[in-house]
Every structure is written in C-alpha cells, then in structure tokens.
Design brief:
2 domains; Glucose Permease (Domain IIA); 20% strand; alpha+beta; rod-shaped; two-stranded antiparallel sheet
C-alpha cells in the first residue's frame, strides 16, 4: 500500500473516531437536557409555573363571576335606554372613551400589557361587585333562617315595576345635590310623577310628614315585630296617622322635587331603628331571575337620586 493511501486511511479512521465521539457527546448532552427539563426546574421556571397556575385559577374565577353577572348586561342596557330617555328626553351619553368600533380599529396597536392590565382591572371590579351581590344574598338567607316568623311578607311599593327601575340602595353613594359621597339609607325606585305607591305589608300608619325639604313628604308604616317601612319623596298622601292599612293598599303617589334629577320613590326599611337594605325583603315578589338582577343593579349603582 502506498504511503498516500496509508495516510488517507489513517485520516479517515481519525475522522470517524472524532465523529463518533462528537455524536456521542451531543447525544449525551441532549439526554441530559431532556432529563433535566423533565425532572428539574430552575428558579425562573418554577416561578413561571406558579404564575401560570395562579393565572389559571384567576381566569376560572373570572369566568365564573362573569357568568353570574352576564345575564344582567342586557338589563343595564334596557335601563339606560328606557329610563334615561323616558326621564331626561334625550339619548344616553356614552360612558366609554373608546367605542366598540373604535376598539376594533385600534386593536392591532394595543399591547399585551394593555390587555393584561385591563383584564386585571376588570376582574377586580367584577370581583368586588360579585362580593357585594353575594353579601346581599347571604343577608337574605340569614333573615330567612333567623327571623322567618317575624319577617313580614313584603310586596313591591310600585306595582308592575321591573327590575330596571332599581336605583341605588343602602350604603355610601354619590349625592347629586351635595356633590359628594354620603350615606344613603334607602332604595331608589325610578317611577313617573303621580305613579301609585302601595303599602308593602299590613300595618298601622305611624307617621305622616309634609315637608319641602330633605326627603319631602313621608309616610311611615309600623308592621309590627320592630319593622317599619318609610315611603319618601311622595306627592299626594292618602292616609293619616293611626290608620290601619292593608298590604297592596294605595297610600299615595310618587312626587318630584325641583332639586333632584328625576321623580322617584325613596323607600326605606328599618327594624328597631336599624337601617335595613330594602332589596333583601323583595325575594317573594319577583322571579329569581328578576330578583338577582335587582340586587345586582342596587349594588353597582353608585349615585343616589336624593
């Protein structure tokens, strides 16, 4: 064999050995990487895994809460359009700085961080609203469980009313007169001036107030067991103090005040002087669907009408 052939054969042998070692090394490295990836995690990966689990949990909760309140969105639209137009004789102003059409137009320019921050903000708001709604239902269940024999069966003070007439209920609300947050001790029920007002249960008229200040004309009915209902901002009042009234008996009409944005009935429930949320006592007068929507509207309405 010539010298050149021996050199070529030796070179090929060395090249083969190097190639085999290279393949073995790469294969071993890949195997180590796969093994490490399957059974070991870096601190960063573990942190990402925890964040992913947290996001999945938050997402599931968001979906559940959104499903609970999704059925009232149509009701909100109805209230905005029907009641606002009926009272103020104008179109509903848009509360969104960007319309749906505008959002479509700029969707491609929105960053992922914007979507994440918006989703987080929306989720937080929905969770707070859902918590308030849950608290209302828990109070209803507590009343039924602990005070079943003493709770009067309350009907609606406005016959034929829909849940879309529900305004702000008990709590800190923005007052349109004082332009600041004040304690609101009743439930606002939107209605046209002159609409009949009815007693929500049997009782005795304990007070009739005629006034042009504050909550205006007031009829107060004592239902026994410490329960008192108050009908405020009345127009005409057809009862006098000491008269016994029956459930669903007309006691007057809805009035109007020049200092308030629209005519409505301000309705209160008190037990032994303690302010109660009237919404919690209407569970027997509405369908479950309408009652849940009434509670939701009373929770999210941040401005009172008086």
């Amino acid at each position: 064999m010539s010298e050149s052939k021996r050199k070529t054969s030796k070179f090929r042998t060395i090249l083969g050995i190097v190639f085999r070692h290279l393949v073995a090394t790469v294969s071993f490295a890949i195997a180590l990487y796969v093994l490490f990836a399957l059974f070991f995690s870096t601190d960063e990966e573990r942190q990402l895994q925890r964040e992913n689990r947290l996001y999945r949990q938050r997402y599931d909760k968001m979906v559940q809460k959104e499903r609970l309140i999704a059925d009232v969105l149509e009701g909100l639209s109805v209230r905005d359009n029907d009641i606002y137009k009926g009272l103020f004789k104008t179109s509903v102003p848009s509360a969104d700085p960007v319309s749906p059409a505008g959002m479509v137009a700029i969707a491609d320019s929105l960053t992922e961080s914007y979507y994440l921050s918006t989703a987080a903000s929306t989720s937080g708001t929905l969770m707070l609203m859902a918590g308030s709604v849950d608290a209302n239902f828990e109070e209803v269940f507590r009343i039924l469980r602990e005070e079943r024999d003493s709770v009067p069966p309350l009907s609606l003070p406005l016959h034929g009313m829909s849940y879309v007439q529900t305004g702000a209920s008990v709590g800190m609300k923005y007052n349109p007169v004082y332009k600041l947050q004040v304690q609101h001790d009743g439930l606002d029920l939107v209605a046209p001036q002159g609409a009949p007002v009815y007693a929500v249960a049997d009782g005795v008229v304990s007070q009739v107030v005629r006034s042009r200040k504050g909550l205006g004309n007031i009829v107060e009915i004592d239902h026994g067991n410490g329960y008192v209902s108050r009908y405020c901002l009345m127009g005409e009042m057809s009862v006098v103090k000491g008269r016994r009234v029956k459930r669903d008996q007309q006691i007057g009409t809805v009035g109007i005040s020049p200092t308030l944005p629209a005519p409505h009935l301000h309705f209160e429930i008190r037990r032994r002087g303690r302010v109660c949320d009237p919404v919690n006592f209407f569970f027997a007068s509405l369908s479950p669907e309408e009652y849940s929507r009434m509670i939701y509207l009373s929770v999210i309405t941040e401005q009172s009408m008086d």
